[in-house]
């Protein structure tokens, strides 16, 4: 019979159809069914709302993260989309008047000056002078320069310089840059000059001109862009500068009124470096404008339109640099004007073709949404399937009254529509509210996750409400609902009226179950039925309730599997959440290097008239000056020296030392035939307070270990190592003894000392270099080729120091933890350094001599850079960020200049706080996802169990009518629940343990000694959730099913 064939419609049905349209009748029928089954309806609405809420939260979070990336890019790099470089004067007004341009800023350059001869290198040749940018002029297109010291220029003869130049003299450039020869075309141009070190109030003389490139083949000249790298050509002796400074103006004097630098050490300076040199700012000087570059934003909506604007002004169909720099494009420019494009900004604005980040996050969002949809379909499908099963007779009667299969399906879809109409808006609101709550609660951590510098002060607590995202979330929720309703609707349309009224479809055995029954009957005839044997055992062990419980579970196996699967998912999610939390906590603890809140690293170079004691005094003065910052507490300082040493037989655990070579892909250092070990070593020189703390905490004699003229070292065990792949803890020392520090090793031609080792049982000094001519050579993979030379150590060892090692300790101040080496580490008081360095005071080191060869030679010629005194200063901080700002001001004022080769402040407290916030934020997102998916699974259990029990009311009434007591009844129900519980727990615990094991394996790739753990507390929580869900579901269902008398329940046949 065709599906749409109608039977005769009864008069009552005609009357009903006369009152309401046919579609309205079935809609009203579905509405009434939902009202009569409120618990199932509420659970279904909750499931739809949770599904929609989580999908909304996922996509809203992704949209918000993109909004955050866009804001961070604007904060750190500016809002400009295009920079037109070298715009001709007659085109500047046209750019500003262009209807496509919404904001613009003119970056005016007054030219470049040649720095002193000592700065003649790849990165230091020029000082570019530009107009000081103000907020009114820049209009948010670029972050403004930060004045670290002094003030902005106001008069025409005032200048602000980059902080990198502070304290430098005209002779100080060569220890920063490799000197390069020039073409000689600008040898007569006056170079920048000043007296002494550059400070506030210094006067610098500049002759500004134009950087001009000369093509080596054609001889043609072209102006350089203001931030192009230095043009060089190759020659037989190396690179030669092939550009020169053309059209220099007369020398003018400028007074230094300030120095600018990034506000934080983690922040890049978007103004400071311009190609091969430095940048200075002036205000309306009395010199001509050399070039003008224009930063601009547009009202254009696509990258194609942006490229069209660029082509209009440059003649090129795209930006030359595209955020990087392409020398070939520059040299082949058709016109004078070039262009930068702010690709990273336009990527977040959705205007570029590079969608890798978009694709990654949205792919992840769709994957997570697929998981949610899968869990939700199970819940909503069960709700509809139970509803259809519960109303089998109703659908049979409707079919007998003439309802077509299509109309019966429409009834189920009508229920789905009503549930979606209610649940989806609730889900959208809950998803947005939940996302807002999470971003508000974890705003600071989310800000750190997006960009630590951009949101360090404000955090990130706003969410992006995108109509397209909401529409997509609603659409996915609708698809979820109607997929869930499809199979129940199809089943409802296939119900036979006679079978439905007789109830013959209420209990139907599967093909497998029928096959098993036939097998049991045949086995019973032979007397070998295992089923009957097991039934007898169940009857004896658990009585009639146990046997009935088993029969019920077998009969309703599909519903049981749904309940068990949902419980297993809930348990697995709880265990996985616990595993993630456990290993994230371990990660936070281990990665913490134990350093202080604030650490300042100093590199102090000794001049020829200074001694090691002079350098120590200045380092101590710097430490005390920094400790005066409000909120800072000095926690000591240390100097670190790396060298090679030999250790008496038995001092070093050679197996442990060799494992370091394995982990770090280095050759084994070696042990001589008599057991003497040669290896790299570190010597830490501690301030007096830190040294006395080690002695006191380890019960060491202060008199024995406190004589700076006859130092006795302490060896460290329990040091942490990280080879870039894994973390581990090492005990390298086995006993005390004497360490022979190799303090002066002779150099050899064309090679540099790299290590001391053992060859054929004898100690050797190893050297590496480029060989004859000392010119770099490379293999086919671009790797440098070194000549390796070994010399007997006794032939090249010029001096050494025999250092007694009097104790081995594992307890030492926390700041030392960060600097204890992977190789043997020895500790001494800082007052002992002059004693160890006494024989090296007369050695003049330079950059061509390895610091390992002369580790205590801290002197170098003026204008050269050799070895330095490496010092690390540690401080506690109440407000780490405020202390960082205060210390940077002192560093800029006092700890700068040629003596201080490099000074770097590390805000460990802020970094650790950022890492902790990021970890907590990731954990929060994971927990939220697990919580909601777990809630969907729990709702599925509740819905399945309650409705399956309610549908068994007639069965329960039958059992009570034949004499089953309340105690036996509860025992039967308890055994059924126990079966669900143990199966759900077993599967869930197993699944959770497997996923946790994979997490453990991932962690083992980075951490040694980590144990596999399934957190016991979370297992208890999972057991508690299972018991609670089963107890609540069963109690609610029994209360609902126990209303009414036994006789009334058994006679209940009508709709």
From TrEMBL:
TM region positions: 42-66, 357-381, 416-443, 463-487, 562-584, 924-945, 980-1000, 1012-1038
Keywords: Cell membrane, Membrane, Transmembrane, Transmembrane helix
GO molecular function, one term: transmembrane transporter activity
InterPro entries attached to this UniProt entry: ABC3_permease_C, Macrolide_Exporter_MacB
Entry's localization field: Cell membrane
Its membrane topology: Multi-pass membrane protein
The ABC3 transporter permease C-terminal domain, residue ranges: 367-496, 928-1043
Similarity-based family: Belongs to the ABC-4 integral membrane protein family.
PANTHER family from the UniProt entry: ABC TRANSPORTER PERMEASE YTRF, MEMBRANE COMPONENT OF TRANSPORTER-RELATED
Name listed for the protein in its UniProt record: ABC3 transporter permease C-terminal domain-containing protein
The organism of origin for this protein: Collinsella intestinalis
Phylogenetic lineage: Bacteria, Bacillati, Actinomycetota, Coriobacteriia, Coriobacteriales
């Amino acid at each position: 019979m065709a599906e749409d064939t109608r039977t005769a419609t009864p008069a009552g049905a005609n009357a009903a159809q006369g009152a309401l349209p046919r579609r309205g009748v079935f809609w009203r029928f579905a509405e009434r069914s939902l009202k009569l089954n409120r618990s199932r309806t509420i659970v279904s609405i909750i499931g739809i709302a949770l599904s929609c809420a989580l999908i909304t939260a996922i996509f809203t979070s992704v949209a918000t993260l993109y909004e955050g990336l866009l804001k961070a890019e604007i904060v750190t790099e500016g809002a400009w989309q295009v920079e037109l470089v070298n715009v001709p004067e007659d085109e500047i007004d046209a750019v500003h008047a262009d209807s496509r341009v919404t904001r613009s800023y003119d970056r005016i350059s007054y030219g470049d000056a040649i720095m002193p001869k000592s700065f003649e290198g790849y990165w230091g040749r020029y000082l570019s002078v530009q107009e000081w940018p103000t907020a009114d002029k820049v209009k948010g297109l670029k972050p403004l320069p930060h004045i670290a010291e002094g003030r902005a220029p106001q008069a025409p003869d005032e200048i602000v310089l980059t902080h990198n130049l502070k304290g430098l003299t005209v002779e100080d450039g060569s220890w920063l840059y490799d000197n390069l020869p020039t073409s000689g075309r600008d040898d007569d141009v006056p170079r920048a000059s000043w007296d002494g070190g550059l400070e506030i109030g210094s006067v610098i003389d500049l002759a500004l001109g134009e950087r001009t490139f000369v093509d080596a083949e054609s001889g043609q000249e072209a102006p350089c862009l203001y931030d192009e790298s230095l043009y060089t050509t190759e020659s037989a002796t190396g690179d030669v500068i092939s550009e020169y400074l053309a059209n220099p103006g007369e020398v003018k004097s400028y007074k230094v009124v300030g120095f600018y630098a990034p506000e934080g050490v983690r922040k890049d300076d978007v103004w400071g470096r311009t190609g091969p040199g430095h940048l200075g700012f002036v205000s309306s000087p009395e010199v001509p404008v050399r070039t003008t570059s224009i930063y601009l934003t547009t009202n254009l909506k696509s990258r194609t339109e942006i490229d069209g604007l660029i082509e209009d002004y440059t003649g090129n169909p795209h930006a030359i640099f595209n955020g990087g720099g392409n020398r070939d494009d520059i040299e082949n420019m058709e016109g004078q004007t070039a262009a930068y494009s702010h690709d990273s900004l336009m990527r977040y604005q959705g205007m570029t073709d590079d969608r890798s980040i978009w694709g990654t996050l949205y792919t992840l969002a769709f994957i997570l949404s697929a998981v949610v949809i899968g869990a939700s379909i199970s819940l909503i499908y069960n709700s509809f399937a139970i509803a259809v099963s519960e109303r089998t007779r109703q659908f049979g009667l409707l079919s007998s009254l003439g309802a077509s299969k299509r109309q019966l399906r429409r009834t189920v879809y009508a229920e789905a529509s009503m549930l979606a109409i209610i649940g989806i808006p609730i889900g959208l609101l809950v998803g947005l509210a939940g996302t807002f709550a999470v971003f508000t609660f974890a705003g600071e951590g989310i800000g750190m996750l997006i960009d630590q510098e951009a949101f360090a002060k404000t955090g990130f607590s706003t969410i992006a409400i995108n109509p397209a995202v909401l529409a997509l979330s609603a659409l996915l929720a609708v698809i979820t609902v109607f997929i869930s309703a499809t199979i129940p609707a199809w089943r409802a349309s296939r119900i036979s009226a006679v079978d439905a009224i007789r109830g013959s479809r209420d209990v139907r055995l599967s093909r497998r179950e029928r096959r098993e029954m036939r097998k049991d009957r045949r086995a019973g005839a032979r007397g070998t039925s295992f089923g009957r044997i097991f039934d007898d055992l169940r009857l004896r062990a658990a009585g009639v309730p146990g046997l009935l419980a088993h029969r019920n579970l077998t009969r309703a196996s599909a519903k049981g599997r749904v309940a068990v699967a949902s419980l297993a998912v809930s348990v697995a999610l709880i265990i996985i959440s616990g595993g993630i939390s456990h290993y994230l906590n371990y990660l936070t603890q281990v990665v913490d290097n134990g350093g202080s809140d604030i650490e300042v690293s100093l590199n102090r170079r000794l001049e020829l008239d200074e001694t090691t004691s002079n350098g120590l005094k200045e380092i101590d003065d710097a430490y005390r000056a920094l400790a005066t910052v409000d909120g800072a507490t000095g926690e000591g300082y240390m100097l670190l020296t790396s060298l090679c040493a030999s250790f008496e037989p038995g001092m070093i655990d050679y197996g442990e030392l060799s494992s370091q070579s394995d982990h770090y892909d280095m050759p084994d250092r070696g042990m001589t035939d008599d057991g003497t070990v040669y290896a790299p070593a570190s010597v830490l020189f501690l301030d007096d307070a830190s040294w006395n703390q080690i002695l006191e905490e380890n019960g060491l004699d202060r008199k024995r270990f406190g004589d700076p003229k006859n130092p006795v070292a302490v060896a460290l065990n329990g040091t942490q190592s990280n080879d870039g792949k894994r973390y581990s803890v090492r005990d390298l020392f086995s006993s005390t003894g004497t360490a022979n520090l190799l303090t002066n090793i002779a150099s050899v031609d064309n090679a540099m000392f790299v290590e001391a080792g053992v060859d054929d049982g004898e100690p050797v000094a190893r050297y590496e270099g480029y060989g004859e001519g000392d010119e770099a050579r490379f293999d086919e993979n671009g790797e440098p080729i070194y000549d390796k030379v070994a010399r007997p150590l006794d032939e090249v060892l010029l001096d050494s120091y025999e250092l007694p090692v009097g104790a081995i300790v594992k307890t030492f101040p926390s700041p030392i933890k960060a600097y204890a080496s992977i190789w043997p580490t020895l500790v001494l008081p800082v007052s002992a350094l002059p004693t160890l360095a006494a024989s090296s005071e007369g050695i003049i080191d330079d950059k061509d001599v390895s610091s390992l060869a002369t580790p205590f030679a801290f002197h170098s010629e003026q204008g050269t850079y050799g070895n330095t005194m490496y010092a690390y200063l540690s401080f506690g901080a109440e407000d780490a960020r405020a202390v960082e700002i205060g210390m940077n001001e002192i560093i800029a004022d006092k700890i700068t200049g040629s003596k201080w080769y490099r000074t770097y402040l590390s805000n460990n407290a802020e970094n650790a706080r950022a890492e902790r916030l990021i970890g907590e934020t990731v954990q929060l997102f994971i927990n939220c996802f697990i919580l909601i998916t777990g809630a969907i699974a729990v709702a599925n259990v509740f819905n399945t169990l309650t409705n399956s029990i309610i549908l068994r009311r007639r069965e329960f009434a039958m059992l009570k009518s034949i004499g089953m007591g309340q105690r036996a009844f509860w025992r039967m129900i308890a055994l059924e629940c126990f079966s669900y519980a143990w199966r759900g727990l077993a599967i869930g615990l197993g699944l959770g343990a497997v996923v946790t094991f994979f997490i453990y394996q991932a962690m083992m790739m980075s951490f040694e000694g980590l144990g596999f753990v399934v957190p016991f507390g979370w297992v208890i929580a999972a057991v508690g959730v299972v018991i609670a869900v089963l107890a609540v579901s069963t109690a609610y269902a029994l209360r609902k099913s126990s209303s009414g008398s036994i006789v009334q329940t058994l006679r209940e046949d009508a709709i």
